[in-house]
Amino acid sequence: MKRTISVVLVLCLAMGLCACASSGSGSSKKLVMATNAAFPPYESVEGNEIVGIDADIAKLIADDLGMELVIEDMAFDSIIAAVQTGKADIAMAGLTITEDRKQNINFSDPYTEAAQVILVKTTSSVQTPDDLEGLSIGVQIGTTGDIYAADIAGATIERYSKYFEAVNALLQDKIDAVIVDREPAKVFESENPDLKIIDDEFTVEEYAIGVAKENTELLDNINASLKKLKESGKIDEIIGKYIKAE
Ligand code: GLN
Questions:
Q1: What are the pLDDT digits (tens) for 159-216?
Q2: Which of 147, 181, 183 is the best mutation target for the ligand 1 pocket, counting ligand atoms within 8 Å of the beta carbon and taking the most?
Q3: How remote is the CA of residue 242 from the centroid of ligand 1, in Å?
Q4: 75 in any annotated domain
Q5: pTM metric for this prediction
Q6: Residue 220 lies in domain
């Protein structure tokens, strides 16, 4: 019996199944960040690297905590579960603080403001969020856009696993609008002359770092790091590098 257990244990270790994200043992403590790298300017793939505001901030936090940053790219709607189950230590994905999510994970202090905006074709008659009533709206599954679109009277919500699929559907007139975070919306708008962003924002939000409920020590350390990075102007510097003032 003992032998079976140890064989299972060895196999399990060999396959990495028992591996926790950060054990704290060994020479380099890893800080594993769960993200969805299709969300520029916060995270996107460039060559074989994940770059963006979140990646840069995470790197500075990891450095400050003497840890090695490892970024894991996954579907957006797997990120919170990855943190809850210990597959990742932190969630950084332009992740909006919501009361619902607070039931499952803790959030750090916010590091930036954000918003959901409405992306439409330049030919669209939509001018304000109220005009979305009764229309067909594309969102990315599990995002705040998805959650809040449910409140629009008479609207049909089309859920896509990736934002760019929603944007393609919009370009092909399969849907009337896409609800998406402001900065990624600006990237889509800049790449497609047929798209425009409605000035009136749909929601105002804040992004923060998600940490497992029981990992309060890491949360405290992250908040201490964030405070230093904010005070030294480093956060503004990173944001300014990726988002040009208008
Ligand atoms: N800010 C949105 C949310 O938290 C979308 C984030 C994303 O798609 N990466 O739901």
A1: 999 999 999 999 999 999 999 999 999 999 999 999 999 999 999 999 999 999 999 9
A2: 181
A3: 18
A4: yes
A5: 0.88
A6: 29-111+208-242
